[in-house]
Amino acid sequence: MNSILQANDISFSWGENHVLKGLDLDIGENELISILGVNGAGKSTLLKCLNRILTPQSGKIQVSSKDVFSLSLLELSKLMSYVPQSVRSSFSMDVFDVVLLGRRPHISWRINDNDRDKVSETLRILKLEDFAFRRFDQLSGGERQRVIIAKAVAQDPKIFLLDEPTSDLDLKSQIEIMKSLRTLVSDSESPKSALVAIHDINIAARFSDRILLLHDGQIISQGTPKEVLTTENIAKVFGVTSEVEIFSPSEAEETEVYSPSVRVIIKDEISDDASLSEKSVDKFHHGRSKSTETK
Amino acid sequence: MDSLSKQHIEKGKHQIFLVTILSISTILLAIFALGQGSSTNLDMWTTMRIILGLESGSELQSDIIWQLRFPRILMAIIGGIALATAGALMQGCLGNPLVSPLTLGVASGAALGAAFAIVLGFTIVNRPELGIVANAFLFSLVVVYIIIQLGNFRSISAESYILVGIAITFIAGAIVSTMQYFATDAQLSQLAHWSFGSLSRPEMENVVFIGFIVIILLPQALIWSWDLNALSLGGDDFAISTGVDPATIRRNILVLSALMTSVVIAFTGLIGFVGLAAPHMARQIVGNDFRKLIPCSAVFGAFLMLFADTLGRTLFAPIVIPVGIMLSVIGGPFFMYLLLKGRGVKS
Predict the structure, then answer these.
(1) How confident is the model over A158-216, as pLDDT tens digits?
(2) Which of A57, A119, A187, B327 lies 20 to 30 Å (CA to CA) from residue B43?
(3) Radius of gyration of chain A (CA)
(4) Under an 8 A CB cutoff, do B241 and A87 touch?
(5) Tens-of-pLDDT digits for all 347 residues of chain B?
């Protein structure tokens, strides 16, 4: 597997608050990777460090074998596109023009027909053609989110960094967006990857090649959804009890286009104050719930 | 070509058409204004023939048009272009629709410079006709220097620029007030007159100088329009992801806008409203795409300034009402109408 993004020993802190503590990351071509973790675990900070919105105190980040800190922001934006959690602004533009901003790293000043066509194509892929000439600020939160994702797609980068892209979306739109991302990432002609900070464990399980579990500024587990989403990990990171269903590949493929290999059913919070400690995990294991495995 | 792409091109053409109509209206208004005044009123056709040299007119008519009215009308156009462009740029890079070219304290710096000249007799340039202007310009440049220095602080936000601007306004205002407290009646009157904002002060050579500076700065503003689009729509994180360095671009744009503002108000006195209103009026036609918004704001600025000044000269002739006052009196209600039109009223 060719590596698109490599990050080594990334540390970041706000004063005395150490948010990221020496993270290592390796993203290959055509990979969709989800980052899971509680609020404040460092998911957004990690994405912002990778895109140079924040400057880590230490560490090295390479995209397509180029050091991100030696690139200009314009060169970096051709390789990487960051989608923030939300975009709220006092000024507005037509949706078409917002998505056209994605072409900005590739053009000098004048836009040509190819750039316009690229925008039109992106709008169609993300089912936004009906909104093309509506004002961005008159859209709902979910629609705005899709427009910003469309802008990132029109930017044609090697890697997408998405900060909770489904947080403002209804259930159908969540699936649509993740399917669109999955399709983009799976396109072998133009290798792209995506790193997605997300809260919904089952969406992550269904669409991700790999999951990173971020806890207290460190990656405590990474691998396929099946490897990472265990009751122990979920209890340790989220402080909740759960049941994890594991599907065999054949059963999963019959039911859905993007087949989850695992499904997590959240049961209850671990009420103990020391919920994140090993003690509570043990208690949870032996007492309240069980892990089920189908087939 | 894709149908959406075609629609985008068509929409752009329609917007350019509207801006062209507005530009032509401004030129026609300028010709009309050249013929109007307290001493001699000429119809547009005669005025145009005199301008083009097809009709000589009387010597008096020719002198009034070329010596008196032409510099003033050119100043209205150039001043309107400069202040409106500066307003659009500053609103965009600070992400705030309430910002005007006077927000950063440039005008307060200029007023302080003028007060030093008028009240204390302290002038940097030792020529009576240029004393106040030079003071106003150099003091406003001090504010531009403060803006540049602010840009060197790490993570300086748009709000910080605005707050420092407000602080500068208060400080300069306090010093000016102190000087006013000790000033003579004549000095007070002169200072008040300066602060009204008038297009009658600049001589033709001043107007050419201002025009030269504005023409040099305008293309640079247009070059930054993509960066402004990213910055004004989505803020700093979004801009970085689009390949724009928000801190650098914001500082550069603020310095350019402050320079444009300084060079105009040093000669004319305080004219603020056009820089706030013209960009918002332009947005009603072309939206917030700065590639179109900058030229459209410039044209709106020129039109508004010219319209207000012509009205100020002719409404109560031979009394001339300063353009700064006229702009606020007629522009204010029109501006409010534009902002509120189309919005339903709560039942």
Answers:
(1) 999 999 988 878 888 888 888 888 888 887 677 889 999 999 898 998 899 999 999 98
(2) B327
(3) 20
(4) no
(5) 788 899 999 999 999 999 999 999 999 999 998 887 766 677 777 777 777 777 777 777 777 878 888 899 999 999 999 999 999 999 998 888 888 888 888 888 988 998 888 888 887 777 766 788 888 888 888 888 888 888 777 777 888 888 988 999 999 999 999 998 988 888 898 888 888 888 887 888 889 999 999 999 999 999 999 999 999 998 889 999 999 999 899 889 988 998 899 889 888 888 878 999 999 999 989 999 999 999 999 999 999 999 999 998 888 877 888 888 888 888 788 778 877 776 666 65
Whether A87 sits inside 8 A of B4 (CB atoms) is no
C-alpha distances in Å from residue A61, one per residue of A10, B177, B211, B239, B244: 8, 56, 49, 20, 20
Relative orientation angle of helices B70-94 and B290-314, to the nearest 10 degrees: 140
* CA–CA distance, B197 with B270 (Å, rounded to integer): 5
A74-106 per-position pLDDT tens digit:
999 999 999 998 887 778 899 999 999 999 999
The answer to whether the CB atoms of B92 and A91 lie below 8 A apart is: yes
CB spacing of B2 vs A135 below 8 angstroms:
no
- Residue ranges of A 25-54 with Cβ closer than 8 A to chain B: 48, 51-53
Alpha helices in chain A (DSSP H): 43-50, 73-79, 95-100, 113-125, 141-154, 171-186, 201-207, 225-228, 231-238, 249-255, 278-286
Q: Does A109 touch chain B (CB under 8 A)?
A: yes
Candidates B95, B223, B287; nearest CB to A93: B287
SS3 of residue A210 by DSSP: strand
What ipTM describes this predicted complex? 0.84
Report the residue from B2, B237, B283 with minimal CB separation from A84: B237
Q: B237-258: buried (b, 16+ CB within 10 Å) or exposed (e) per residue?
A: bbbbbbbbbbbebbbbbbbbbb
Q: Any bridge partners for residue A162, and if so which? A: A83, A196
With H, G, I as helix, E, B as strand and everything else as coil, classify residue B157. coil
Which is the CATH superfamily of the domain at A3-229?
P-loop containing nucleotide triphosphate hydrolases (3.40.50.300)
Cβ of B242 within 8 Å of Cβ of A77? The answer is: yes
CATH 3.40.50.300: which residues of chain A? 3-229
Residues 6+ apart with CB under 8 A from B178: none
Chain A / chain B CB contacts < 8 angstroms:
122
Q: Which of A287, A282, A292, A293 is nearest to A232 (CA)?
A: A282
Q: Taking CB atoms and an 8 Å cutoff, what residues of chain B touch A155? A: 242
Give the A window 127-146 contacts with B, CB below 8 Å.
129, 132-133, 135-136
DSSP state of B317: T
- Cβ–Cβ < 8 Å for B272, B195: no
User: Which of B5, B226, B241 shows the shortest C-beta gap to A116?
Assistant: B5
Domains of chain B from N-terminus onward:
3-338 (1.10.3470.10)
Name the residue in chain B with its Cα closest to that of A48.
B237
Phi, psi of A30 (to 5 degrees): 55, 35
How many whole angstroms separate alpha carbon A89 and alpha carbon B109?
30
